[in-house]
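Thread: "does anyone have the structure for this chain?"

Original post by V.I.:
We have the sequence but no experimental structure in hand. Need at least a predicted one for the grant figures.
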Amino acid sequence: MFVRGLYVPSDCCASNEQSDNDYALRQIQEILKADVRPSTELDLEKIRRDADRQD
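Reply from O.Q.:
Generated one for you, tokens below.
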């Protein structure tokens, strides 16, 4: 499975336990190759422009 341009900001996810959240984010990052940086580190305008170019 390959998903291009998948963003899952780590500060926008929640789990009952922090360890579960950390594990899920690691899986998302390693298996889906998602960008899991905090939302404050994402340039949303650039992401939108890049997505527009791919359409």
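V.I.: this helps a lot. DSSP finds two helices and no strands in the chain.
O.Q.: and Residues 10-54 form one domain.
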